[in-house]
Amino acid sequence: MNLPKRHNILMVVTALAVTLFFGCESNFKEVQKINFSEFVPAGDTDMATTKYTDSGRITGVLISPKMLDYSNVSFPFTEFPKGIDVTLYDKKGKRTFIKSNYAVSYKNTSIIDLQGKVKITSEAGQMLETEQLFFDQKNEWFYTERKFKLTDVKGVSNGQGIDFSKDFKVINSQRISGEIEADE
To answer: What is the pTM of this model?
Structure first.
């Protein structure tokens, strides 16, 4: 059985194409492996307790069931996938309590992103609840653009967008509604 010359050339070209295709796929997978860097934490801690100090004075205590340290990446951060419980102390020893279901602390910016049922309570009885809140550690300032509920001895207010000092002495809120007792 003699096949036409054109048919033989087609079979040879097909065989070469298939060989090249599978050869390139194999090399491509190896190239992918070379460029792949595994994203794993430098540290993994269960039941973490961290105390923050300034000149020998405790300024904060952070407790978390799980802490992942990503200090080995180009934009280092620490992740708390199971939430945090933080107590902040001012210079007079007054405390502010913070709880959230999830948190990420960015080392280069000193910003902490708190997410999921965030609740902040002061010793004076003020309480703020929201779904996401940022804390600027350098300026000791909280802020969010999310909806919030602020409970105070003077009343309850709701709104969207708020920023305030960690001791609740300065509060700037946006789109607020509620009933608050006014000073006479």
So the answer is: 0.73
